[in-house]
Amino acid sequence: MFCSKCGTRLSEGSTFCSRCGVQVAPVVEQVAADVSPKSRLTTSLLAIFIGEFGVHRFYVGKIATAVVMLLLGLVPVICVVGIVLLAAASDSEDPPALFWVCLGLMYASGFAVSIWALIDFIIAVTGNFKDSQGKIIKKW
Questions:
Q1: Taking Cα atoms as reference points, which of 70, 44, 54 lies closest to residue 122?
Q2: How many CB atoms lie within 10 A of CB 19?
Q3: Nearest of 54, 70, 69, 60 to residue 129 by alpha carbon
Q4: Do 35 and 138 contact (CB within 8 A), yes or no?
Q5: What CA–CA distance (Å, rounded) separates 34 from 29?
Q6: CB-based contacts of 128-134 (< 8 A; 24+ apart in sequence)
Q7: Looking at residue 33, what is its pLDDT?
Q8: d(Cα 121, Cα 69) in Å, to the nearest integer?
Q9: Nearest 10 degrees: CA dihedral of 121, 40, 64, 33?
Q10: Are 120 and 51 within 8 A, CB to CB?
């Protein structure tokens, strides 16, 4: 352990620096105060299994980005329904242009939100994901 002010090496359990007299105990309390009470395991599991709908972000309190993920995650579902309806209503062998638009939207939004959820999962597993208050989610 080292002094945060002068860098002097301190013995374990020291509360004051022997060189400059700075109190070192509040630093440990500050680190503990910056840790979120949310579960890292829960955040990680939600991110990997249903992260495409932003559930893990709702869990940690990041509502705005959770809603964005939810909307992006619903686009492929809506597009699949649209594609099925277009295919059922089409009399010709060639699908209408709207079919291709729906297909493109489905793949683009699905890919984007899946990558976003995967990145969130990796950040959560490594213990660097933060909750809505900026506290790191470290506790398993």
A1: 44
A2: 13
A3: 60
A4: yes
A5: 9
A6: 129/40, 129/43, 129/60, 130/36, 130/60, 131/36, 131/38, 131/60, 131/61, 131/62, 132/60, 132/61, 132/62, 132/63, 133/36, 133/61
A7: 67
A8: 14
A9: -140
A10: yes
Beta carbons of 66 and 58 less than 8 angstroms apart: yes
* CB crowding 56-90: b at 16 or more within 10 Å, else e: bbbbbebeeebeebbebbebbeebeebbeebeeee
Reference 128, options 68, 73, 47; nearest CA is 47
**Distance from C-alpha of 65 to C-alpha of 58, rounded to nearest angstrom:** 8
| DSSP conformation letters of 14-37 | -SB-TTT--B-HHHHHHHHHTB-S
DSSP at 11: -
Amino acid at 94: D
Contacting residues for 110 by C-beta, under 8 A, at least 6 apart = 52, 75, 76
Neighbours of 8 (CB within 10 A): 14
Q: What is the CA radius of gyration of the chain?
A: 24
Give the domain ranges of the chain.
1-33, 40-125
In the chain, which stretches have pLDDT less than 50? 28
Tokens 């395991």 locate to: 41
